């Protein structure tokens, strides 16, 4: 039986990122809802999404560059 440590590292990093985002959105926005009400929770959700937009765009650009680099190296 072989162990693919790179696959394991990718899987672990993905799970950590998803867990952190769930914690941020559920616990963070849930506390805003409990303390300040539904209007503030909606604004908090919008602010969280707006804050993640640059991160998502950067990630998409990096994935696109990786894809292009792999295509060029094949030729």
Quickly give the structural class: mainly alpha
CA radius of gyration is 18 Å
Task: Provide the succession of SSEs.
Answer: HH
Estimate percent helicity: over 70%
Residue-averaged pLDDT: 94
Kindly give the count of domains: 1
Based on Cα principal axes, name the global outline: elongated
Largest sheet: none
- Poorly predicted sequence stretches spanning 5 or more consecutive residues: none
**N- and C-termini, Cα separation:** 34 Å
Characterise the protein shown here:
- The mean pLDDT is 94.
- By secondary structure, the protein is mainly α.
- It is 92% helix and 0% strand.
- The chain has one domain (5-74).
- It has helices spanning 5-36, 38-74.
Which tags fit this structure?
single chain, 75 residues, mainly alpha
Question: Short description, anyone?
Answer:
The protein has 75 residues and is mainly α. It has helices spanning 5-36, 38-74.
């Amino acid at each position: 039986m072989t162990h693919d440590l790179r696959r394991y590292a990718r899987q672990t990093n993905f799970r950590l990122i998803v867990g952190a985002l769930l914690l941020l959105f559920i616990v963070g926005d849930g506390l805003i809802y409990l303390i300040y009400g539904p209007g503030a929770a909606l604004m908090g959700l919008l602010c969280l999404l707006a804050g993640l937009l640059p991160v998502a765009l950067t990630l998409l650009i990096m994935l696109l560059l990786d894809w292009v680099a792999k295509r060029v190296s094949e030729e």
